[in-house]
Design a protein that fits this description.
Elements: H1 3-7, H2 11-33, E1 37-43, H3 44-48, E2 58-63, H4 68-73, H5 75-79
Length: about 80
């Protein structure tokens, strides 16, 4: 996240941005270690490098065809 986005705004927003950044690190680690994942990328403001404290995560994930059912079955782990 940009330095301006990290320090500007109300304390609750700074904390939410910190939690979002922590989540992104955990998701990246999980995706890198998952052999079903073929590719993953961020879209939106993070993909453009224009994120700020208000930005959400727009994540695209490509999984192997033969792994799709298992991936979808475990989606609560990613979304919950």
């Amino acid at each position: 996240m940009t330095e301006a986005g990290r320090d500007d705004g109300p304390a609750f927003l700074v904390e939410l941005a910190r939690q979002r950044d922590d989540l992104l690190v955990r998701v990246e680690d999980a995706l890198r270690s998952d052999e079903r994942v073929v590719a993953a990328w961020l879209a939106g403001s993070f993909g453009r490098g224009t994120e700020d404290a208000w930005s959400d995560l727009d994540l695209h994930v490509v999984v192997r065809d033969d792994a799709l059912a298992g991936w979808l079955g475990a989606r609560e782990r990613w979304c919950g």
